[in-house]
Design goal:
Helix content: 10-25%
Strand content: 25-35%
Shape: globular
CATH architecture of the largest domain: Roll
Radius of gyration: 20 Å
Order of helices and strands: HEHEEEEEEEEHHEHHEHEEEEEHHE
């Protein structure tokens, strides 16, 4: 479904109207990684095959940094620009030059009717937006805030994405899984996995640390405001949070250990909820009661499991997993 069919002419809208020129471009190939971590010549999820069995796993944190080379750019420097030069790495970047006006970027993923929504503050700093639904045609629409819930469309861009790897979108930081080199979550990921001899053990140790340390905050859950984004340093300091905080912290720590991790948002039964899925090429046991088959993403729910502090049978809480209905992946 093209962007022309999604956006009608008009100035005032509630994320409905759009004006501007629509482009169709392609993004593919390119180097696998860029940024502070030099992983270009290595497999980010194949560390165990290079390690000696039984020896400590390399737990040096790796934080990938999104780049904006300006080779493929939509928009203009008087409003908002979108740099999609590195979309083959699983992300685009948006930067707003609007003065005291927030912007929004909507992303329609291939084959999806729901859109992903990202708020772009007027900070003239790039925000990383992940492309988490694989290769295909993504439709990007950009809006500026007018008043209340009214927005005006600025421009749209169609991008044909060919990912270099299906895993890279789940290794970079973004608004929902935010971490930076040397921050609390990154440093803790190294401390917690100090004795891990495999990726499975690293997953186990990070996961169990979160569920045994962080407590669910019912007051925060009752009063959380729309647009809330987790702050992992705050979660670690207060040692409590809502499901969004549990999932974001766990995902950030695992990604810092080169473990591709999805943050899922959707429904568990009738509850709007957040959980994670993690990938490793190992085969083994992630916990006493969860078998990890390897070579696939496996769902884990740190929020529910924290109720028993990792000691109970989580299946009694979450059932056989068929009641999970993910809507978004970050």
């Amino acid at each position: 479904m093209g962007a022309n069919r999604r956006f009608a002419l008009g100035v005032l809208c509630v994320i409905m109207a759009l004006w501007g020129t629509i482009f169709l471009t392609s993004c593919s190939g390119g180097q696998l990684f860029s940024g502070s971590s030099d992983l270009r010549n290595t497999d980010p999820v194949d560390s165990d095959k290079r390690a000696n069995p039984g020896q400590p796993r390399d737990n040096t944190p790796q934080v990938l940094v999104a780049q904006q080379p300006g080779e493929l750019v939509a928009g203009d420097y008087n409003s908002v620009i979108v740099d999609y030069s590195n979309c083959s790495q699983g992300y685009i970047s948006a930067e707003s030059f609007l003065v005291n006006i927030k912007a929004k970027v909507l992303v329609y993923a291939p084959g999806e009717t729901n859109y992903y929504q990202y708020v772009i503050p007027p900070t003239a700093t790039f925000v990383t937006i992940p492309l988490t639904k694989g290769s295909g045609l993504y439709e990007i629409a950009v809006y500026e805030h007018l008043y209340d819930d009214q927005y005006s469309g600025l421009f749209s861009q169609d991008i044909t994405v060919e990912l270099a790897s299906e895993l890279t979108p789940f290794l970079y930081p973004n608004q929902y899984v935010s971490f930076t080199e040397g921050d609390d979550a990154v440093n803790l990921s190294q401390t917690v996995t100090e004795n891990a001899t495999s990726d499975v053990e690293a997953v186990d140790q990070i996961y169990m640390y979160v569920v045994e340390t962080i407590t669910y905050d019912y007051d925060k859950a009752a009063n959380v405001q729309p647009g809330y984004l987790p702050n992992n340093s705050n979660t670690l300091q207060t040692q409590d949070g809502i499901c969004f905080d549990f999932a974001s912290l766990t995902a950030a720590m695992m990604r810092a250990q080169r473990l591709p991790t999805k943050l899922d948002i959707g429904y568990c039964g009738e509850a709007y909820h957040a959980w994670i899925e993690v990938y490793t090429q190992d085969k083994g046991w992630i916990r006493r009661d969860i078998e990890f088959p390897g070579d696939a993403f496996v769902r884990l729910d740190p929020t529910f499991d924290s109720a028993g502090k990792g000691k109970g049978d989580i299946s009694r809480i979450i059932g056989d997993g068929t009641n999970y209905f993910p809507m978004f992946y970050y």
